[in-house]
UniProtKB/TrEMBL annotation:
The keyword Transport applies. The keyword Nucleotide-binding applies. PROSITE patterns: ABC_TRANSPORTER_1 (PS00211), ABC_TRANSPORTER_2 (PS50893). SMART domains: AAA. CDD domains: ABC_Org_Solvent_Resistant. One of its GO terms (molecular function) is ATP binding. This is ABC transporter ATP-binding protein. Gene3D superfamilies: P-loop containing nucleotide triphosphate hydrolases. Residues 5-241 form the ABC transporter domain. Keywords: ATP-binding, Nucleotide-binding, Transport. Coiled coil: none annotated. Pfam families: ABC_tran.
Length: 330
């Protein structure tokens, strides 16, 4: 049921450019987590450190008992089989059709025969809604289909951890909504640990169980989405509510004069917390918490208007009935 990733004291620099000084947090097994941050804060670099494509200056990345920066090449090769990675552009081979692209890791990393490979590839293509596109070349399909082909390829080795680097970049809002639903359904189906890097606040607010923000050469906050979305921390509140007022500037950090020139006063109220996306087949995800649970446990009042869905249902007060209705009549 997914694998936990524990990061301790991670520092990374390129020459004199320090990306982060000291990042420590745990990505819970089987849950969906999202990592955000202004451009250049090292989100892609972080993903590469998790799979050992880049090594930190110091610190640890514990995955399933091993410490990634300290693994030998042969051990890294084995470890990477636990990961399914969806790169920004799908990273498909342009000269191979979609079927061969998706079959590639199976042919490369396993001794499975073509009949078994065919079964797996068609199953994963069906999962991501690409059935029938086997013979198309990457250049003949849309950006959204490329992402889904990349996702199918990331799934063929039955990974315990799925990393996705801006899977929604360049997608229209409707395709983004479909992709988010697909992540929720895949997490329900596979129980894998998901870490998604995104710039899309809409995605961040409804998809994950946990949210993290990178800023100022470090991880400002990581935790359950209700904690992060109700936070009045200046950078967190600014980022997740997409405001200009706050410490994040056009170039990563505002200088003191810019901050001083801004209207002072109490931080604005966070926007209402929307209900979290649910699996489309009526199930509940194992990693999903009851709406309002974190807020109640920590005696935090939700922002006004929170947990009301498009149909006007209040997920705090009607949760049990909503869950029963999703399961359908017995
Ligand atoms: N291999 C490398 N060598 C030198 N510098 C690098 C390398 N990889 C990344 N960087 C630098 O590290 C910084 C962080 O890059 P990264 O791509 O992780 O940012 P990001 O947060 O993912 O940004 P964006 O949101 O714009 O995609 C950037 O300044 C980038 O130029």
């Amino acid at each position: 049921m997914g694998v936990e990733i524990r990061v301790e004291g991670l520092r990374k620099s390129f020459g004199r450019q320090v990306i982060w000084e000291d990042v420590s947090f745990t990505i819970p097994a089987g849950e969906i987590s999202a990592l955000l941050g202004p451009s250049g804060t090292g989100k892609s670099v972080f993903l590469k450190n998790l799979v050992g494509l880049l090594r930190p200056d110091r610190g640890h990345v514990y995955v399933g008992g091993g410490d990634v920066p300290r693994l030998r090449e042969s051990e890294l090769y084995e470890l990477r089989r636990q990961f399914g990675v969806l790169f920004q552009d799908g990273a498909l081979f342009g000269s191979m059709n979609i079927y061969d692209n998706i079959a590639f890791p199976l042919r490369e990393h396993t001794k499975k025969g073509e009949t078994e490979i065919r079964r797996i590839v068609l199953e994963k293509m069906d999962m991501v809604g690409l059935s029938g596109s086997e013979g198309k070349l990457p250049g003949e399909i849309s950006g959204g289909m490329k992402k889904r082909a990349g996702l199918a390829r990331a799934l063929v080795l039955d990974p315990q951890i799925i990393l996705a680097d801006e899977p929604d970049s360049g997608l229209d809002p409707v395709r983004t909504a479909y992709l988010n639903q697909l992540f929720v359904d895949l997490n329900t189906e596979l129980g894998a640990t998901f870490l998604i890097v995104t710039h899309d606040i809409g995605t961040a607010r409804v998809l994950p169980d946990n949210l993290g923000l990178l800023f100022r050469r470090g991880l400002v906050m990581f935790g359950p989405r209700e904690m992060v979305l109700s936070s009045t921390h200046p950078a967190v509140g600014q980022f997740f509510n997409a405001r200009r007022q706050g410490p994040i500037g056009m170039a990563e950090e505002k200088d003191l004069a810019e901050v001083a020139a801004e209207p002072q006063g109490p931080p604005p109220m966070p926007a209402p917390i929307q209900p979290q996306l649910m699996p489309s087949d009526g199930r509940l995800r194992p990693g999903m918490r009851r709406p309002g649970q974190w807020l109640a446990e920590h005696r935090v009042t939700p922002p006004p208007g929170s947990f009301i869905d498009d149909a006007g249902h209040n997920w705090l007060t009607e949760w049990d009935a909503l869950v029963a209705a999703r399961r359908g009549p017995r």
